[in-house]
Amino acid sequence: MKLLTVSPLLCAMMALTTAIDLEDEEGSGGREELLLTGEDHDVKTSRRCPYGWKRYRKRCFLFVSQPLSWAQAQKNCEQMNANLASVHCRKEHKFIRRLIFRATRQCKLTWLGGSNAKVNYIWTWTDGTNFRYTNWCRGEPSNSYGHCLEMNFSAKKCWNDVFCSCLRPSVCVKNIW
Q1: Which residue, of 72, 77, 153, 174, has the greatest Cβ tally within 10 A?
Q2: Which CATH architecture has domain 28-175?
Q3: Is there a cis peptide before residue 67, judged by omega within 30 degrees of 0?
Q4: Sorting pLDDT into bands at 50, 70 and 90, what band is 145?
Q5: Where is the C-type lectin domain positioned along the sequence (predicted)?
């Protein structure tokens, strides 16, 4: 009988130890270790977000602190079966800003999935969703300094178009339904 009681306790202790070890591996600097991991990122079957991703409604978001060009950031997201994040409402935008702030304790300039590289003045999201909600800074997009969308620009923490070659952290998104 004691053996039956000890087994569940031992399993619980092992699970907690594994969870603590995973947190220690991440370090205090953020989420770089999640970048390009080989773990399964297919959440459509489980309807839960993978470890390290945060859920907002029916989508999972991940802040990637590694500074990359916009194209590199999109490719990184794609390797996790995701895209650079699209934003569809003010509440979702605030969620993403909080995600970045919690990871960095700053409002860092960060890549989103918006671009007008295919056709100038026509902005699209990398995930193919409609580009309806915007949070452009006053006078933006200027279409003179780049074709890729960064958020947390200026004191207003709004959107700006900038050269896609700039190095920025990024936010990836994937649907879970």
Answers
A1: 77
A2: Roll (3.10)
A3: no
A4: low
A5: 56-173
